[in-house]
Amino acid sequence: MARCKNADGVELYNEIEFYAKVNSKPVWLSVDFDNWRDWEGDEEMELAHVEHYAELLKKVSTKRPPPAMDDLDDDSDSADDATSN
Questions:
Q1: Which of 23, 49, 56, 62 has its CA at 20 to 30 Å from residue 4's CA atom?
Q2: pLDDT by residue (tens digit) across 8-60?
Q3: According to the model, what pLDDT value does residue 36 have?
Q4: pTM across the whole model
Q5: Element (H, E) at 2
Q6: Alpha carbon of 33 to those of 4, 9, 19: distances in Å?
Q7: Residue 5's beta-bridge partner residues?
Q8: pLDDT in the model for residue 63
Q9: What's the longest Cα–Cα distance across the chain?
Q10: Cβ 15 vs Cβ 1: under 8 Å
């Protein structure tokens, strides 16, 4: 169990149960606080991401139908070959 005090002087406790004995931590291993994720309030952020993704899907799915390609003929490749020779 680990405990410490925050800036306001309130003691915080943290208890972690391991399944087996833990070897000493390598010296080079440390916490990357630049990429630290604060779990408190993540639900609102995730909901905002889901809503944003839903809006993007709406924009993509409400596009016009693709253009008709009826005016393309099948002989266009052979015509190109004839002019290149």
A1: 23
A2: 888 888 888 888 888 877 888 888 888 777 666 677 778 888 889 888 888 87
A3: 75
A4: 0.28
A5: strand 2-5
A6: 18, 22, 26
A7: 11
A8: 67
A9: 87
A10: yes
Distance CA 36, CA 39 (A): 9
Task: Tell me if 2 sits within 8 A of 14, measured CB to CB.
Answer: yes
d(CA 58, CA 8): 47
Choose among 67, 50, 48: nearest CA to 58.
50
Q: What angle do CA 4, 7, 40 make, to 5 degrees?
A: 80
12: its two tokens: 């915080």
The whole-number pLDDT of residue 46 equals 81
Q: ∠ at Cα 69 (72, 56), nearest 5°?
A: 145
Placement of tokens 């010296």 in the chain: 27
